[in-house]
Write a structure and sequence with these properties.
This protein is mostly helical and 92 residues long. It contains four helices and no strands.
């Protein structure tokens, strides 16, 4: 039962990991990332790294795979958000 639950949880984790693609789509459609919190995404990225490390230490693919996917999609989201970030007027 634990193995089945691990596969189901990892599969759902991958679906959750690719969900930021919806945010990327919104950024690209609006050509703006003004309403995207880069700090929030950074906190998530750090968490994904921690879980990947933990999964690697255990040799647990149910932790490694979804967190690797989440980290990759999160990194892409941050890069795209930074690309479409509108500079604030008067800021140095």
């Amino acid at each position: 039962m634990a193995d089945v639950l691990g596969v189901v949880a990892a599969s759902w984790g991958v679906l959750m990991a690719i969900s930021p693609v919806l945010q990327i789509r919104r950024i690209l459609q609006r050509k703006s990332a003004a309403d995207v919190s880069i700090a929030y995404l950074g906190v998530l990225e750090f968490g994904f790294l921690l879980w990947m490390g933990y999964g690697l230490a255990l040799g647990n693919y149910a932790l490694i795979v979804p967190n690797s996917v989440a980290f990759s999609v999160g990194a892409a989201t941050i890069l795209i958000a930074l690309r479409y970030r509108v500079p604030q007027s008067g800021a140095l």
